[in-house]
Amino acid sequence: MTTQQAELWQKIRNFSLDDNSVVFKFSDRVARENGWTKTYSLRVIEEYKKFIFLCCITDTGVTPSDSVDQVWHLHLTFTKSYWVDFCRNTLEKEIHHNPTKGGEKEALKFNDFYTHSHQLYFEIFGAIPPEDIWQDNHTRFSDVDFQRVNLKKFWIIEKPTLPIIRITVLVITFCILGLFVQASGSIFMLIITGIVIIVGLLDVVIKAITNKNWDKKEPPQKDNDIGSGCSTSSSFDSHHGHSSDSGCSSGCSGCAASGCSGCGGGGD
After folding, report:
1. CB count, 10 Å around CB of 199?
2. Are the C-beta atoms of residues 33 and 69 closer than 8 Å to each other?
3. Which parts of the sequence are annotated with region: Disordered (predicted)?
């Protein structure tokens, strides 16, 4: 980091999103709305600060992980904290969050931005981004089917990780072997059935434990309107807390993502 960048990073680190004068703090809301533990929520808030810092110094563009993006979304709803205390008084520039335009070109651009985020993170902070917060590109841009759910009305049950076809084949095989054993009464067939069942169960366990992406597909390249992007500006409107000009970048938007492009130079 340059001296100027180090000063900006220290200001961002010292910025508190929690208001100690209230009972239900920002970090408590982050934890509740995402179903996270308080410890994990505090970690993601720290990563959010790192992302904003990267956004301020990048010459190209960066995109946050989904977890970091959720903290960003929530912070934007705390309008005074975000626009006045954070952007105006701490960053001395605006970080805008814009709706996605969608399309393959945007998807490819933000996939590159996300890769750049990981690279720049390592260059600046000297560490690989934590994997439980900064997922790989495939997960970041494919695991995006989120909806707001009222937990007082609905139960949430996790889907099985195995494809339906594998489960179906396994069940049909057990049934056929079971019929053979019942019809023949053969000890040999009983042994074969037991071996097949054990092998099948071991296959399920091994796949579930060692290879989470074994049914991996390519990231979607079609329109996806659930994301957003951002742009930066170094000037402020004194009444609204944001500017009408485009600042030092033309803005950006993402497909199943969000990101920002900044001026560089450590927050000038």
Report:
1. 10
2. no
3. 216-253
Could you tell me which of 228, 232, 234 has the C-alpha nearest to residue 259? 228
Token representation of residue 17: 């999103």
Sequence-distant (6+) residues with CB within 8 A of 238 are: none
Helix (H, G, I), strand (E, B) or coil at 99: strand
* Helix boundaries (H) for the chain: 3-14, 26-34, 38-57, 66-77, 79, 104-125, 137-142, 164-184, 187-210
Determine contact, residues 44/30, Cβ cutoff 8 Å: yes
For the chain, 268 residues long, give each residue's pLDDT as a single digit of tens.
889 999 999 999 999 999 999 999 999 999 999 999 999 999 999 999 999 999 999 988 899 999 999 999 999 999 999 999 999 999 999 998 866 688 888 888 888 999 999 999 999 999 999 999 999 999 888 877 787 888 888 888 777 665 566 666 667 777 776 676 666 666 666 677 677 677 766 666 666 555 544 444 444 444 444 444 454 555 443 333 333 222 233 233 333 445 554 433 333 3
Count the helix, strand and coil residues of the chain and give each as a percent rounded to the nearest 5.
50, 5, 45
d(CA 268, CA 266): 6
Q: Does residue 229 sit in helix, strand or coil? A: strand
Angle between helices 26-34 and 38-57 (to 10 degrees): 110
